[in-house]
Amino acid sequence: MEKLKERILSEASILSSDVLKLDGLLNHQVDPELTMEMGREFARLYAEERITKVITVESSGIPVAFATALTLGVPLVFARRKKTLIADPDALTERVPSFTKGIVTDIMVSRQYLMPQDRVLFIDDIIANGDAARGLIKIIERSGAQLAGLGIVVEKSFQAGARTLREQEIRVESLVRIASLEGGKITFA
Ligand code: 5GP
Q1: What does the UniProt record say this protein does (predicted)?
Q2: Hey, which of 10, 163, 179, 181 has its CA 20 to 30 A from 21?
Q3: Which residues line ligand 1 (CB under 6 A)?
Q4: Domain boundaries in the chain?
Q5: Does domain 37-177 have CATH number 3.40.630.10?
Protein backbone atom coordinates (compact mmCIF):
# COMPACT_ATOMS: atom_id res chain seq x y z
CA MET A 1 0.00 0.00 0.00
CA GLU A 2 1.73 3.14 -1.27
CA LYS A 3 -0.28 5.45 0.98
CA LEU A 4 0.81 3.48 4.03
CA LYS A 5 4.47 3.71 2.98
CA GLU A 6 4.13 7.48 2.69
CA ARG A 7 2.55 7.72 6.14
CA ILE A 8 5.30 5.55 7.63
CA LEU A 9 7.98 7.73 6.05
CA SER A 10 6.38 10.92 7.36
CA GLU A 11 5.34 9.72 10.83
CA ALA A 12 7.52 6.83 12.01
CA SER A 13 10.63 7.29 14.05
CA ILE A 14 13.47 4.81 14.25
CA LEU A 15 14.28 3.83 17.82
CA SER A 16 17.12 1.44 16.96
CA SER A 17 18.28 -0.68 14.04
CA ASP A 18 15.42 -3.09 14.69
CA VAL A 19 12.61 -1.06 16.33
CA LEU A 20 10.31 1.40 14.65
CA LYS A 21 8.00 3.73 16.55
CA LEU A 22 4.60 3.84 14.85
CA ASP A 23 2.50 5.50 17.54
CA GLY A 24 0.96 7.99 15.10
CA LEU A 25 -0.84 5.32 13.08
CA LEU A 26 -0.75 1.94 14.82
CA ASN A 27 0.29 1.89 18.46
CA HIS A 28 -1.23 4.97 20.08
CA GLN A 29 -3.28 6.97 17.60
CA VAL A 30 -5.45 5.44 14.87
CA ASP A 31 -6.47 6.98 11.53
CA PRO A 32 -9.92 5.44 10.96
CA GLU A 33 -10.00 6.00 7.19
CA LEU A 34 -6.51 4.56 6.61
CA THR A 35 -7.32 1.68 8.97
CA MET A 36 -10.49 0.91 6.99
CA GLU A 37 -8.40 0.84 3.80
CA MET A 38 -6.06 -1.67 5.42
CA GLY A 39 -9.02 -3.81 6.48
CA ARG A 40 -10.51 -3.70 2.98
CA GLU A 41 -7.17 -4.80 1.51
CA PHE A 42 -6.90 -7.81 3.85
CA ALA A 43 -10.55 -8.68 3.13
CA ARG A 44 -9.79 -8.53 -0.62
CA LEU A 45 -6.69 -10.72 -0.29
CA TYR A 46 -8.59 -13.37 1.68
CA ALA A 47 -11.95 -13.01 -0.11
CA GLU A 48 -11.88 -16.58 -1.46
CA GLU A 49 -10.90 -18.20 1.82
CA ARG A 50 -14.34 -18.62 3.46
CA ILE A 51 -13.17 -16.84 6.62
CA THR A 52 -15.57 -17.25 9.56
CA LYS A 53 -13.60 -15.25 12.13
CA VAL A 54 -10.86 -12.65 12.36
CA ILE A 55 -8.50 -12.97 15.31
CA THR A 56 -5.84 -10.69 16.75
CA VAL A 57 -3.97 -10.05 20.01
CA GLU A 58 -4.82 -7.02 22.14
CA SER A 59 -4.25 -4.21 21.82
CA SER A 60 -2.62 -2.68 18.73
CA GLY A 61 -3.97 -5.28 16.30
CA ILE A 62 -7.59 -4.57 17.21
CA PRO A 63 -8.42 -1.56 14.97
CA VAL A 64 -7.18 -3.12 11.73
CA ALA A 65 -8.61 -6.52 12.69
CA PHE A 66 -11.96 -4.80 13.32
CA ALA A 67 -11.81 -3.12 9.91
CA THR A 68 -11.08 -6.48 8.28
CA ALA A 69 -13.85 -8.29 10.17
CA LEU A 70 -16.35 -5.53 9.34
CA THR A 71 -15.53 -5.80 5.63
CA LEU A 72 -15.71 -9.61 5.65
CA GLY A 73 -18.92 -9.55 7.72
CA VAL A 74 -17.57 -11.91 10.41
CA PRO A 75 -16.89 -11.57 14.16
CA LEU A 76 -13.59 -10.36 15.55
CA VAL A 77 -11.99 -12.19 18.47
CA PHE A 78 -9.03 -10.67 20.27
CA ALA A 79 -6.74 -12.78 22.42
CA ARG A 80 -6.45 -11.18 25.82
CA ARG A 81 -3.24 -10.66 27.68
CA LYS A 82 -3.90 -12.53 30.86
CA LYS A 83 -2.97 -11.01 34.17
CA THR A 84 -4.26 -13.72 36.47
CA LEU A 85 -2.67 -16.99 37.50
CA ILE A 86 -6.05 -18.59 38.18
CA ALA A 87 -6.42 -21.53 35.83
CA ASP A 88 -9.49 -21.30 33.57
CA PRO A 89 -10.48 -24.68 32.11
CA ASP A 90 -12.30 -22.95 29.23
CA ALA A 91 -9.28 -20.92 28.17
CA LEU A 92 -6.60 -21.72 25.63
CA THR A 93 -3.43 -20.05 26.87
CA GLU A 94 0.09 -19.62 25.47
CA ARG A 95 3.09 -17.82 26.91
CA VAL A 96 4.76 -15.43 24.48
CA PRO A 97 7.82 -13.21 24.81
CA SER A 98 7.01 -9.56 24.08
CA PHE A 99 9.35 -8.03 21.52
CA THR A 100 9.00 -4.45 22.74
CA LYS A 101 8.46 -4.96 26.46
CA GLY A 102 11.18 -7.56 27.05
CA ILE A 103 8.86 -9.65 29.24
CA VAL A 104 6.73 -12.72 28.71
CA THR A 105 2.95 -12.45 28.73
CA ASP A 106 0.22 -15.06 28.63
CA ILE A 107 -2.29 -14.68 25.84
CA MET A 108 -5.69 -16.28 26.22
CA VAL A 109 -8.72 -17.11 24.08
CA SER A 110 -11.88 -18.70 25.51
CA ARG A 111 -12.78 -21.95 23.78
CA GLN A 112 -16.32 -20.70 23.15
CA TYR A 113 -15.05 -18.08 20.69
CA LEU A 114 -12.88 -20.42 18.62
CA MET A 115 -14.62 -23.55 17.36
CA PRO A 116 -13.36 -26.50 15.26
CA GLN A 117 -15.58 -25.39 12.36
CA ASP A 118 -13.97 -21.91 12.27
CA ARG A 119 -11.68 -20.77 9.47
CA VAL A 120 -9.59 -18.03 10.94
CA LEU A 121 -7.72 -15.02 9.57
CA PHE A 122 -5.09 -13.70 11.99
CA ILE A 123 -4.42 -9.96 11.71
CA ASP A 124 -1.65 -8.10 13.54
CA ASP A 125 0.06 -4.73 13.45
CA ILE A 126 3.75 -5.65 13.17
CA ILE A 127 5.70 -8.88 12.84
CA ALA A 128 9.26 -9.12 14.11
CA ASN A 129 10.49 -12.51 15.38
CA GLY A 130 7.05 -14.05 15.09
CA ASP A 131 6.61 -15.03 18.74
CA ALA A 132 3.16 -13.47 19.08
CA ALA A 133 2.07 -15.14 15.84
CA ARG A 134 3.42 -18.54 16.88
CA GLY A 135 1.60 -18.29 20.23
CA LEU A 136 -1.70 -17.44 18.61
CA ILE A 137 -1.25 -20.12 15.92
CA LYS A 138 -0.77 -22.72 18.69
CA ILE A 139 -4.01 -21.54 20.30
CA ILE A 140 -5.84 -21.81 16.96
CA GLU A 141 -4.44 -25.33 16.42
CA ARG A 142 -5.44 -26.43 19.92
CA SER A 143 -8.99 -25.13 19.37
CA GLY A 144 -9.32 -27.34 16.29
CA ALA A 145 -10.05 -24.31 14.09
CA GLN A 146 -8.26 -23.90 10.75
CA LEU A 147 -5.84 -21.04 10.08
CA ALA A 148 -6.38 -19.51 6.63
CA GLY A 149 -3.42 -17.16 6.97
CA LEU A 150 -2.03 -13.96 8.42
CA GLY A 151 -2.50 -10.33 7.50
CA ILE A 152 0.24 -8.07 8.85
CA VAL A 153 0.34 -4.29 8.48
CA VAL A 154 4.13 -3.92 8.79
CA GLU A 155 6.48 -6.84 8.20
CA LYS A 156 10.06 -6.24 9.27
CA SER A 157 11.46 -8.68 6.75
CA PHE A 158 15.01 -8.40 8.16
CA GLN A 159 13.70 -10.31 11.20
CA ALA A 160 12.81 -13.98 10.95
CA GLY A 161 9.10 -14.09 11.90
CA ALA A 162 7.30 -13.90 8.57
CA ARG A 163 9.95 -15.88 6.69
CA THR A 164 9.81 -18.76 9.18
CA LEU A 165 6.01 -18.92 8.93
CA ARG A 166 6.12 -18.93 5.11
CA GLU A 167 8.69 -21.74 5.24
CA GLN A 168 6.03 -23.68 7.16
CA GLU A 169 3.62 -23.09 4.24
CA ILE A 170 1.57 -20.58 6.25
CA ARG A 171 0.19 -17.77 4.10
CA VAL A 172 1.47 -14.38 5.30
CA GLU A 173 0.26 -11.20 3.54
CA SER A 174 1.91 -7.92 4.55
CA LEU A 175 0.78 -4.45 3.47
CA VAL A 176 4.30 -3.04 3.83
CA ARG A 177 7.64 -4.82 4.09
CA ILE A 178 10.60 -3.10 5.66
CA ALA A 179 13.96 -4.52 4.58
CA SER A 180 16.13 -2.45 6.91
CA LEU A 181 16.27 0.31 9.50
CA GLU A 182 20.05 0.61 9.30
CA GLY A 183 21.65 4.04 9.29
CA GLY A 184 18.54 5.70 10.71
CA LYS A 185 16.76 5.11 7.37
CA ILE A 186 13.62 3.13 6.52
CA THR A 187 14.27 0.95 3.47
CA PHE A 188 11.23 -0.82 2.03
CA ALA A 189 11.61 -4.30 0.52
P1 5GP B 1 7.10 -10.60 17.43
O2 5GP B 1 6.32 -11.45 18.37
O3 5GP B 1 6.78 -10.90 15.97
O4 5GP B 1 8.56 -10.63 17.69
O5 5GP B 1 6.65 -9.09 17.69
C6 5GP B 1 5.33 -8.73 17.40
C7 5GP B 1 4.75 -7.72 18.33
O8 5GP B 1 5.73 -6.90 18.94
C9 5GP B 1 3.83 -6.82 17.53
O10 5GP B 1 2.48 -7.13 17.83
C11 5GP B 1 4.19 -5.42 17.94
O12 5GP B 1 3.21 -4.89 18.78
C13 5GP B 1 5.49 -5.54 18.66
N14 5GP B 1 6.60 -5.05 17.81
C15 5GP B 1 7.54 -5.78 17.18
N16 5GP B 1 8.44 -4.99 16.55
C17 5GP B 1 8.02 -3.73 16.76
C18 5GP B 1 8.52 -2.44 16.34
O19 5GP B 1 9.53 -2.29 15.63
N20 5GP B 1 7.81 -1.36 16.76
C21 5GP B 1 6.69 -1.45 17.53
N22 5GP B 1 6.08 -0.33 17.87
N23 5GP B 1 6.20 -2.64 17.95
C24 5GP B 1 6.85 -3.77 17.57
Answers
A1: Converts the preformed base xanthine, a product of nucleic acid breakdown, to xanthosine 5'-monophosphate (XMP), so it can be reused for RNA or DNA synthesis.
A2: 163
A3: 19-22, 27, 60, 99-100, 124-133, 161
A4: 37-177
A5: no
